[in-house]
Amino acid sequence: MHPNPVFRSDDRALLEMLIDKIGFGMVFLTTPDGPRVAHTPLLLSGEGAVQFHLARGNSLTRHLDGATALVTVNGQDAYVSPRWYANRDSVPTWDYVALELEGRVRRMADEGLEAFLHAAIAKHEARIEGEPWRADEASESLWSGLFKGIAGFELEVQAWRPTIKLSQKKSAAERERIAAGQAAAGRPAIAQLMRTLGA
């Protein structure tokens, strides 16, 4: 998390929206073999919990149950050029949106993993145009093989640490120049965030 409080937010709905919209993150844990990270789909589940799954062979899988772990979600990011500032006697920076979630992890029973998979499939299939794929289209042998290869987890979030760094330290006119510069440079998503979240 960025140390400057100007880049933080206590807006829980916004933070949950980031998890929902991005839907993917990284799980970090220090294991007896050293620090490890896994990349995984994420799904909000109930009040203050995030679910995910990992391959059973992943180096984190055997260490996560009962551990305190860190999950990160990375949103839009972009280089900020001093050419967009009123005073070019400056230095570049980077604007970005990120969220750190710290909490206790528990391994889910097969029923929880099954529910997670169906919910994640339904959520992401709904974002694609056309006839959605359904889990029951997979053969029983394929689906049961999936369960032998993955494990489901739930992190009960005990700390939410967001960074929403969108040039908030600049004036409104300068922020608009930066947003216009980002849009012209092919990064309209972060320009839109600057105009809405960082205002």
How would you describe the overall organization of this protein?
Helix content is 32%, strand content 35%. It has 199 residues and is of the alpha+beta class. The chain has one domain (5-169): Electron Transport, Fmn-binding Protein, Chain A (Pnp Oxidase, Chain A, Roll). It has a seven-stranded antiparallel sheet. Strand 3 and strand 4 (49-55) form a beta hairpin. Helix 5 (172-184) runs antiparallel to helix 6. It is elongated.
Key terms:
199 residues, alpha+beta, Pnp Oxidase, Chain A, seven-stranded antiparallel β-sheet, 6 helices
| CATH fold node name | Pnp Oxidase, Chain A
Give the helix proportion (percent range). 25-40%
Multimerization state: single chain
Identify the CATH class. Mainly Beta
Question: N- to C-terminal separation?
Answer: 20 Å
CATH architectural grouping: Roll
How are helices and strands ordered from N to C? HEEEEHEEHHEHH
Mean pLDDT: 94
Gyration radius, to the nearest Å? 20 Å
Determine the CATH superfamily: Electron Transport, Fmn-binding Protein, Chain A
For the largest sheet, list the strands in their spatial order.
Answer: 2-1-5-6-7-4-3
Q: Please report the number of helical segments.
A: 6
Shape assignment: elongated
- Kindly name the structural category: alpha+beta
Number of domains: 1
